[in-house]
# Entry
Amino acid sequence: MTTINPVPELVEGRSPGEKSRRWGSFYVAEHRLYAMRAYLQTLLVTGFGNPLLYLFGLGVGLARLVNVPVGGATYLEFVAPALLAASAVTVAGEEFSYPVLMGFKWNPIFFGMNAAPLSGLQIVNGMIISVFVRMFPTVGVYYAFMLIFGAVPRVTGVLDILVATLVGMSVGVMIMAYTATITEDHGQMAIIQRFILMPMFLFSGTFFPITNLPIYLQWIGWISPLWHGTQLGRVLSYGLAEPGWLTLVHVVYLIALAATGWILAARHFTKRLNS
# Structure
C-alpha cells in the first residue's frame, strides 16, 4: 500500500497560501530581478559608462569653458548632484513603465500572481523592491565617480545617494500608478519620456539655476521632483545657501509624492486585478 506523505505546511498547521501571502512582495521582486538578468550587460555598461562620460565631459570639458563659480561652487560641483538624481529618474522611467504595462497586457503575469494568491499591494511592493535593488547600486556607482572627479567637497554628500534614490522612487511610483490604468498601448510611455521626463531634466536647474529661466518657465522646476532633489543634494554636497524652510519643503515634497504614488499604484493594481 502506497503511503502519501502529508504536505509540510499542513502538518505544521499552515495553509499552503500562507507563505505566499507573508512573503509575496519578495517573491514578486525575485521574479522581476530574474527578468532583469536578460539585459544585465546593458545595465553594467550604462551603470559605469554614463557617470564616467557625463562627469568627464562636464568636469574636464565643459567646466573648462564655464570657469565661473555657481552658487559658491565650481560648475562640476554644481551639476554633479543633479546628474546623480537624474540617473535615478532614468532608472525609474525604464523600470516603472514598460515592465508594468507588460505585466498587465503583453505578458499578463500580474493576473497569475494575483491568483497565487498575491494582493495588488504585494505586487506593487515587489516591483518597488526590485527597482530599488537596481537603482541604489546604480546611484552608488555614480556617486563613486563623483568622488573620483572631486565633485563632492563635503562628507555629508554621501547622503546624496539616499536623496537621489528618493527622487527616482517619487517619480517612478507615479509612473507606475498611471501605467496600471493603461489598457491599450498608444505610445503613452514614449510621451512620458519625451514630454515629462525630458523637460524635467532640462528645466529643473540641472545645468543652470532655474532663476536664469524666464519667470513663466520657472514653475516647471518648482513642481519637479528632480529640482527638489537636486537642490537638496546641493545643500548636502557643497552647502548650497538656502533657507532652512525650503530644505524642509524639498524633503516633505519628495516623501509626499512617493507616498501618493504608492497609494495610487496599489489602488489601481488592486482594482484592475480584481475587476
